[in-house]
Automatic annotation (TrEMBL):
<dbReference type="Pfam" id="PF01182">
    <property type="entry name" value="Glucosamine_iso"/>
</dbReference>
<comment type="similarity">
    <text>Belongs to the glucosamine/galactosamine-6-phosphate isomerase family. 6-phosphogluconolactonase subfamily.</text>
</comment>
<dbReference type="InterPro" id="IPR037171">
    <property type="entry name" value="NagB/RpiA_transferase-like"/>
</dbReference>
<protein>
    <recommendedName>
        <fullName>6-phosphogluconolactonase</fullName>
        <ecNumber>3.1.1.31</ecNumber>
    </recommendedName>
</protein>
<comment type="function">
    <text>Hydrolysis of 6-phosphogluconolactone to 6-phosphogluconate.</text>
</comment>
<dbReference type="InterPro" id="IPR006148">
    <property type="entry name" value="Glc/Gal-6P_isomerase"/>
</dbReference>
<dbReference type="InterPro" id="IPR039104">
    <property type="entry name" value="6PGL"/>
</dbReference>
<dbReference type="GO" id="GO:0006098">
    <property type="term" value="P:pentose-phosphate shunt"/>
</dbReference>
<keyword id="KW-0378">Hydrolase</keyword>
<comment type="pathway">
    <text>Carbohydrate degradation; pentose phosphate pathway; D-ribulose 5-phosphate from D-glucose 6-phosphate (oxidative stage): step 2/3.</text>
</comment>
<dbReference type="InterPro" id="IPR005900">
    <property type="entry name" value="6-phosphogluconolactonase_DevB"/>
</dbReference>
<dbReference type="GO" id="GO:0005975">
    <property type="term" value="P:carbohydrate metabolic process"/>
</dbReference>
<feature type="domain" description="Glucosamine/galactosamine-6-phosphate isomerase">
    <location>
        <begin position="13"/>
        <end position="222"/>
    </location>
</feature>
<dbReference type="GO" id="GO:0017057">
    <property type="term" value="F:6-phosphogluconolactonase activity"/>
</dbReference>
């Protein structure tokens, strides 16, 4: 199946997280059986925490799995906003502690300076087997923020690098993000959202309008890869409720 959007709604994260984890784990097992290895890209933020906890309990040969990020804030791994720290804390535990992790941050002073080296490391992992993306209420997914510097590059399918450095217009940390082309290397895409506010944004994103206004449209409008929208009606729990 190519490019179809399927929506799966769940009452809350308690139901969504194990279902998404089981589906992702199945795809990882299939990739391991076919190629001897599997590559998964996950997002940060607060939404994926229950999914991470459910996924690390899945029984599979985690030593054959490489996990990377869809996007990262340019902060050290001990910073509370680090997506790598989130993955370390909730996903790289139990059996999943045996997985390899490819961060989207290195020792360079800025994301722009570190981008090329990380891009090469990430490209060496391709193709991704699964990418699980989130979405913000401003319609960003990955770090494709409306009005961000380099958004055009990030969404340019012919952009040669797998990663792009972006500065969100609203300020905050500089970001490193997979490009659209890199995300579309994944055989299966999931968009994981919770709560009615995000659902309303998603409904808007499905209407005609510029991709730059609601960059999640780039994902919704692509036709190369199957996309499953996993929606929890009840809003997400706080990180530590997982
Ligand atoms: O900044 C980010 O936000 C989105 C959504 O985060 P959430 O806290 O609303 O779940 C996330 O997908 C992205 O990876 C992250 O860097």
């Amino acid at each position: 199946m190519k490019g179809a959007i399927e929506v799966c709604a769940f009452p809350g994260q308690a139901e969504l997280a194990p279902a998404l984890a089981a589906a992702v784990a199945d795809r990882l097992r299939t990739a391991i059986a076919a190629r001897g290895r599997a590559v998964l890209a996950v997002s940060g933020g607060s939404t994926p925490v229950p999914f991470f906890v459910a996924l690390q309990r899945e029984v599979l040969d985690w030593r054959r799995v490489t996990i990377t990020l869809v996007d990262e804030r340019w902060v050290n791994a001990d910073h509370p906003d680090s997506n790598a720290a989130l993955v370390q804390r909730y996903l790289l535990q139990g059996g999943a502690a045996g997985a390899q992790f490819q961060p989207l941050k290195n020792g360079a002073a800025t994301a722009a300076a570190g981008c090329d080296a990380i891009s090469s490391q990430v490209s060496a992992l391709f193709p991704l087997d699964v990418a699980v993306l989130g979405m913000g209420t401003d319609g960003h997914t990955a770090s494709w923020f409306p009005g961000a510097s380099n958004l055009e590059q990030a969404l340019d399918r012919d952009y040669p690098g797998s990663c792009v450095a972006l500065q969100p217009a609203a300020g905050g940390h500089e970001r490193l993000s997979l490009s659209l082309a890199a995300v579309l290397s994944a055989a299966q895409l999931y968009l994981h959202v919770s709560g009615s506010e995000k659902w309303t944004v998603l409904e808007r994103a499905l209407l005609p309008g510029p991709v730059a206004d609601l960059p999640v449209r780039a994902l919704l409008r692509q036709s190369e890869r199957p996309l499953q929208v996993c929606y929890a009606v009840q809003d997400k729990p706080a990180r530590d409720d997982a």
